[in-house]
Amino acid sequence: MSETKPPRVLPAPDSDFYMIHQVLNDEEQAILKKVRSFMEGTVAPVINQYWAEDKFPFELIPGIRDLNIVGVGFNGYGCPGGSTLLDGFIAMELARVDSSIATFYGVHSGLAMGSIYLGGSEEQKQKWLPPMVRLEKVGCFGLTEPLVGSGAGGGLLTTARRDGDTWVLNGQKRWIGNSPWCDLSIIWARDVDDNQVKGFIVENKTTPGFSVAKIENKVALRVVQNGVITLENCRVPEENRLQGDQSFRDTARVLRLTRQYVAWESVGCSMGAYENALKYAQTREQFGKPIASFQMVQDLLAKMLGNITASQCMVVRLAQLQDQGKLKDEHASLAKAFCTVRMRETVGWAREVLGGNGIVLDYNVARFMADSEALYSYEGTREMNSLIVGKAVSGFSAFV
């Protein structure tokens, strides 16, 4: 009798081909391991259903809070501290399972909390940041408008007018993640007196003249609840104006940090699509053997992994520059533009590996493919980020 061959042991899908996680110390790797365990064990089993239903999984918020990652990169006020590098790896790990959860986290911990941390007074930081760390208060970031997206730096239509000890805000904001249900909004408006952009903390549920309409029928990041904020003679006390912000340059400090966050997030999205495609290819059989054994499939897998590895190396260096105090706008812009383009290629190839099953939610790749389109556009389009880089390297501004 012939001996039965033992079953082939296949390598587990792993998108960290260059072992990039080893740049973290042991404590940071332990934090990342906790995040991965939560995302794979708690989020992954339910997220497709929430995506299909266009709903946010509020029952996951306590689990995210218990990870003690909200406010990573900020010191004091209950924040856990840590490096920009660790924050980037967390973003990547969240997005590796779901880009919507990563976006929810980035909007709250990065954009909203970052605005207060960088531009708020000491009193404002003491008041708002601790409950935001505990996710007792959740924030959003209101910059983009229905008629103003890429041109936010030069022409916000939302206005702020000083009236004694209060400010009167009028205008609209669009595509504001978390806004249909969160507690506070960071609203950026143009001061009619000096024409400068200023930031305001608006308490959503108690401020007259503030309303939100949820944006329906999205085909990307469906778990994230985006809204259109309308401000009609919305009165905000002077104590809620971000005291350290006097112009759009102050707003740009926050965007510089979060733009690099999106680069990390896009790498995570690529990793998730690749790992799901590889897992599928190892088990899906055609012509009597797994499709992962076919040359053309292996070519796609290698190209995906090349995109991911190049992007990982770029964002790691980006975070190191930030931690060294050397990060410039053009550094963040190049990473955001490059990594999202590579992501778009990667998720497309992942869908190609799955054939027709690549458009079915059950296999996950379809979700990564759809969500990638939002990551590709927000926090500055590829074109706008390319012009920021072009100006820096050429000395000429090509902005119209």
UniProtKB/TrEMBL annotation:
Record domain Acyl-CoA dehydrogenase/oxidase N-terminal: where: 25-135
E.C. designation(s): 1.3.99.-
GO molecular function terms listed in the Swiss-Prot or TrEMBL record: acyl-CoA dehydrogenase activity; flavin adenine dinucleotide binding
A biological-process GO annotation: fatty acid beta-oxidation
Record keyword Oxidoreductase present: yes
Enzymatic class: oxidoreductase
Keyword field: FAD, Flavoprotein, Oxidoreductase
Cofactor: FAD
Superkingdom classification of source: Bacteria
Domain Acyl-CoA dehydrogenase/oxidase C-terminal positions: 253-393
UniProt domain Acyl-CoA oxidase/dehydrogenase middle: residue ranges: 140-234
Statement: the UniProt record of this protein carries the keyword Aminoacyl-tRNA synthetase: no
Family: Belongs to the acyl-CoA dehydrogenase family.
Name of protein: Acyl-CoA dehydrogenase
Source organism per UniProt: Paraburkholderia ultramafica
